[in-house]
Design brief:
The chain has about 140 residues and is mainly β. About 10% of the residues lie in helices and about 30% in strands. The chain is built from one helix and eight strands. The longest helix has 16 residues. It starts with a helix and ends with a strand. Bound molecules: copper (II) ion.
């Protein structure tokens, strides 16, 4: 658990450095690039894409809300919670004046990490779920 604690502190520091993890994409007209060495998961109504993403240990995964609704990425086990990610302004897809909210999480442990949107839970949206598979 010590390693996990260190990860959370690292993420918090990263969020501060970027001026906030869920509203750091102002003035963008396209989807933000994935973090260095990282990958993007796009959220739409009501789907994570790709739904299953296999990454190496240490990879930073960035979720991007491409709306049109507010969404979130929440680990089934409670490992992470993006809180609400705003939809892009000016329409339901990129091309508006403000990109959708983003959230990043670094996976430092191998395993399978299922997640969902807490605003649109699997009980009502059974296909609106995703899994990050982390391999060594
Ligand atoms: Cu949602």
């Amino acid at each position: 658990m010590r390693a996990l604690h260190t990860v959370r502190i690292g993420i918090a520091a990263l969020a501060v450095a970027c001026g906030g993890s869920s509203s750091s994409s102002n003035n963008m007209t396209g989807p933000p690039p994935p973090p260095m060495g990282g990958v993007n998961v796009t959220i739409s109504d009501f789907k994570f894409s790709p739904a299953v993403d296999t990454v190496k240990v240490g990879t930073i995964v960035q979720w991007v809300n491409n709306g049109p609704s507010e969404h979130s990425s929440v680990s089934d086990s409670g490992l992470w919670d993006s809180q609400g990610m705003s939809p892009p302004s000016g329409g339901g897809s990129y091309g508006g004046t403000t990109g959708g909210g983003t959230f990043q999480f670094q996976f430092n442990t191998a395993g399978s990490f299922p997640y969902h949107c807490k605003f649109h839970p699997p009980a009502q949206y059974p296909s609106f779920v995703g899994t990050i598979v982390v391999v060594n």
